[in-house]
Amino acid sequence: MLLFEPAEGAQPVAGIVMFHGGALRKGSADELAPHCRQLAARGIFAASAGYRLIGQAAMNIDDCIADARRAVEHFLRLAALRGLDSSRLASGGSSAGGHLALVAAMIAPGPPLPAPKPGVAAVVALNPVVDLLAYSPEQLRILEQDAGIAAGRAIEYSPIEFVRPGNPPMLVQHGTHDEVAPISQVRRFRDVMVQAGNDCMLLEYERAEHAFHYPGPAGRFDDVIDATAEFLLDRLAAD
């Protein structure tokens, strides 16, 4: 877990722990370090967390989810040392990492039931997969194999199936040309969240593809950081 603090002597006003993407099989905490560094500059205590990867130390998606849950718990303890209680903390991530954050916040450990306590007060997801059953049967079969999900059990890991009143506020940032997680499934997730009475904001980036949010001339890094910081400070920062 890489930690990024506000300027020396400054008290953080909110916090977020983020998980990298890579289809659960590659990537590292370094990938979201630029995001966390910029959020810290806005007064937000930010952490970029790694997790075991499938094909390496993880056997399947359950190991990745377990690591995400442990990372959130550890982050809560670290944040408490900085004067931040759980009402001012969020989780989030990119792609598969965004999915992990959503699962950890929305689905209870053990049986696939809605989580009675999300553990965090908000979620920020960048180009996440939110509806596993939206894919074709062939695509779903490949997804299950790649993620180590038993055949026919993808529904147990699909965030849209666990939307209930009381889900934490969410900010989803997504490209309209995302070829991994089509914008249509994310719009549907937003609609279901709102219909359940939840606070769910979807920011669409025109013509942006998957993983659009990294630094670089082709990305929308600054826009993503601005939107994330505004959301966190608005929803979580104490008066």
Report on this model:
The structure is a single chain. This protein has 239 residues and is α/β, with parallel strands linked by helices. It contains 6 helices and 7 strands. It has helices spanning 33-40, 61-80, 96-106, 137-147, 183-195, 221-236; strands at residues 2-4, 14-19, 44-49, 89-94, 122-126, 170-175, 200-205. Strands 1-3-2-4-5-6-7 form a 7-stranded mixed beta sheet, sandwiched between helices. Helix 5 (183-195) links the parallel strand 6 and strand 7. It starts with a strand and ends with a helix. The model has no long low-confidence stretch (mean pLDDT 95).
List keywords for this structure.
16% strand; 239 residues; alpha/beta; single chain; 6 helices; seven-stranded mixed sheet
- Approximately what portion of the residues adopt beta-strand conformation? 15-25%
What is the straight-line distance between the termini?
A: 29 Å
Radius of gyration: 16 Å
Q: Regarding quaternary structure, how should these chains be classified?
A: single chain
Summarize the helices and strands and which ones pair or pack:
Blueprint: E1 2-4, E2 14-19, H1 33-40, E3 44-49, H2 61-80, E4 89-94, H3 96-106, E5 122-126, H4 137-147, E6 170-175, H5 183-195, E7 200-205, H6 221-236
Parallel strand pairs: 2-3, 2-4, 4-5, 5-6, 6-7
Antiparallel strand pairs: 1-3
Helix pairs in contact: 2-3
